[in-house]
Amino acid sequence: MSDTQNMTETETPKTGSDAEPGFLEAFLDNKPEPAAERDPELEFHVIEMVQTIYDPEIPVNIYELGLIYELTADVKGNVKVIMTLTTPHCPVAESMPGEVETRIRGVEGVNDVSVELTWEPAWDQSMMSEAARLELGFL
């Protein structure tokens, strides 16, 4: 039987400040933990590692190539990477995200790694760094 069915005709459901005590407190206690503070030094070391990973078809590392859309590291050692590939038909489409994750896990201070592959926005040559364009003869 529901609470509504248990009430007499003169009773009204409890709402707002009449609701069971502790509900609001329990709700507020379960709010998500705030994101940990970013760790610029760890981010620097992770970027250094990512710069050692090369696209097999282009002689430029994936960072300078512009395949890393987002890279963050926090003081708890959690690293998040959002990346893409030059094309969905790239021969390393299945292995590259795993390689990136494995290599980042080897950086001192890293506890957890999340690598997400995205196709939006689609990669194009304008995303390359100036150094990459110079190396490939585009400048």
Give a structural overview.
The protein is α+β, with helices and mostly antiparallel strands and 139 residues long. The chain has a domain at 40-135: 2-Layer Sandwich (GMP Synthetase, Chain A, domain 3). It is built from five helices and three strands; from the N terminus they run αααββαβα. The chain has helices at 3-6, 23-29, 40-50, 96-105, 130-135; strands spanning 68-73, 78-83, 112-117. It has a three-stranded mixed sheet with strand order 1-2-3, covered by helices on one side. Helix 4 (96-105) links the parallel strand 2 (78-83) and strand 3. The longest helix has 11 residues, at 40-50. It is elongated, with a radius of gyration of 25 Å. The model has no long low-confidence stretch (mean pLDDT 86). Residues 1-39 are annotated as: Disordered. InterPro entries: Fe-S_Maturation_MIP18, FSCA_dom_sf, MIP18-like. Residues 1-15 have a biased composition (Polar residues). It comes from Govanella unica. This is DUF59 domain-containing protein.
Keywords for this structure?
single chain; 139 residues; alpha+beta; GMP Synthetase, Chain A, domain 3; 3-stranded mixed beta sheet; 5 helices; 3 strands; 27% helix; elongated; DUF59 domain-containing protein; FSCA_dom_sf
